[in-house]
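Minutes, project huddle
Topic: does the predicted pose make sense with alpha-D-glucopyranose bound?
PN asked that the exact inputs be recorded in the minutes so nobody has to dig through chat later. Recorded below.
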Amino acid sequence: MDASFTKNILTMNKKILLILLALSMSSFHQVAAQKINDDNTAIESKIDALLQQMTLEEKIGQMTLYTSDWDVTGPTMRSGYRKDIEAGKVGAIFNAYSVDYVRELQSIAVENTRLKIPLMFGYDVIHGHRTIFPMPLAQAATWNMEAIEHSERIAATEATAEGLNWTFTPMVDVARDPRWGRIMEGAGEDTYLTSRIAVARVKGFQGDNLAADNTMVACAKHYAAYGAALAGRDYNTVDVSDRVLRETYLPPFKACVDAGVGTFMTSFNEVDGIPATGNEYLLREILKKEWDFDGFVVTDYTSIAEMVPHGIVADNKEAGELAVNAGVDMDMQSGIFNDYLAQSVKEGKVKISDIDDAVRRILRIKMMLGLFDDPYKYCDKQRQDTLIYHPEHLAFARAFAAESMILLKNQNQTLPLSKQTSTIAVIGPLADSKKDMIGAWSAAGDFNKSVTVLEGIKAKLPTQRVVFARGCEVDGDDRSGFDEAVTLARRSDAVVLVIGETKEMSGEAASRSEITVPGVQQQLAEALIATGKPVVVVLMNGRPLDLSWLDAHAPAILEAWFPGTQAGHAVADVLFGDYNPSGKLTVSFPRNLGQVPIFYNNKNTGRPMSADKYTSKYLDVANTPLYPFGYGLSYTTFQYDNLKISSPTLTNNQKIEVSVEVTNTGKMAGHEVVQLYVRDLVGSVTRPVKELKDFRKIYLEPGAQSVVTFGITPATLRFLTRDMQWAAEPGEFEVFVGTDSGTTQSVRFSYSP
Ligand code: GLC
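Predicted holo structure (tokens), as shared on screen:
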């Protein structure tokens, strides 16, 4: 690499870094969001006064959420929602946005109804509103909490500019089964990291003042344990112990409550035999009593009605009664509250006090949003015209997407590609596909504005030096395009092959029974690799895939996920070294489907995995993941030395420090995510072989060294003991520090309170 090239890279790297840094230091990053609680007596007394005036039907109307017909995110639609609003039967509308449309619907509520209670407007702003960011599982791979929070700040800025004030985000479902299509929507397999990211998302959306015109109320979903669906089949049964529920799946939700999240959404699945939407243990016992949550709970799409096919109730009326009695405050789309709840109250099957509590929670959020002061506050044409796709948003999206990508393999420094490469063949069905760049759950994102990989590479090199062939489709067995692709590859100096899944192959109701690269794309890769040309595989997918063959044969593999509006520029920035990849997996990639579920923080068992016969292992595959949790390569190399611990013993109210020297031993500046794991060697219940407890993302120039220090206190060691109490137990511990969950150095210490 000649000096000027390196200099250019460093300059570009610095530019991208400055974007990230500058934006992450911006004024958006306020203190933690306020907790939604009744300290604000002014609001509470206003609610009291309003409740006094409301009829039972008007109260039930506030407990109802209907979709508009602007988007379809579930199995049913209803045409009469305008009339329902006018009849005072609607508290909120979702899937409706834009200043004009929101103003139109809001005016029905605040000008034509008796009490003129304003509507909330909700939407699935899952990874950006108009400017689409990488899908959430990709964002998690940045391990950059400030950037994640900032992306939600931008999403909230754009969404509120189009009339919205409620987002059905963050999705905080821990997931360990790549067959499940919604694994793309969360933060992966680890509870601690999912909790950290959940807080960043809530703070990003809610800021420190819900009454501001650029903040919106967030929604922790899907409560609870939706990611544990049996066999990764969406909506399927969840059967976990109370211990696993509380230790693995609930902490991210609790983190949302502590961050002041305003709403929760129930999940479709049952938990321990009772659908979450009718589960009093989850909703009243844990969420509203133990955690003292005083926002409101909305169901998922028609999930009240779906308790009939679940077989927990005989009909819709019973379903409505079970939901309210269990602690549901708002019914999304089934209309069952409007149809039956008044009758149920009159029959004494539902208490009016529960109705009043639900309405109080809903009105509290509306008042904290400032909607009673100005129902049209989110209908500002000037904001809509100036903030959507703002250049700063697009610049951040490009840098954020580059940071989310993971270098899985880079044999013989195949990457970065030189900008002096005379001809690059860009091949593959996803290389020029605008629609797939923004991934699933991209809501109001306009895929026509997305940049394809082909466009991104053409923006880096003179067009005549970039040639393209599709080669094949994502799915199907048509190989008729192979010859053209192979011919092009033979005539080129390097190949960039962009393959993976379509955006429809992940997301909701998109489970796959296979996790291979679909269709004949792998066969196309075989044909191209057989030419002997350097082939860089760029993957676009919504889940971990079985990459065993590609890992064995492709010289370089970049996991790009679905990178969003600026996809092509971000991929090109990484491929040509203008950004040194720093992403780290937050979900294990298995060697094959048979290994699933496979995750890093597993239990040791009584016959731990080893080459010995009588041990817990498969005979036909190496018993480690292909790529472990926390894994990701860089264009440079990092060396870890001198792991130290400040004391071999930890006592109560004390902190010990673990430090390690990290050196950039390569030729390029880059980021490294230094990870800290802890193992409790003996507990009153069995403990995982390691658990992520902290991490630091650092940046080092070539040759530079940093001493990274972590603090360990008794709180770090807490878990659910045998008597189901959160506590740290005395004994021996091992602390691991390293570049991924499988590559660490360790040192032991003991904790004696
Ligand atoms: C969907 C999803 C949920 C989404 C809701 C509204 O079915 O499960 O995540 O927020 O409906 O679109």
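Observations noted during the meeting:
- The longest strand covers residues 670-680.
- Residues 257 and 293 are 6 Å apart (CA to CA).
No decisions taken; revisit at the next huddle.
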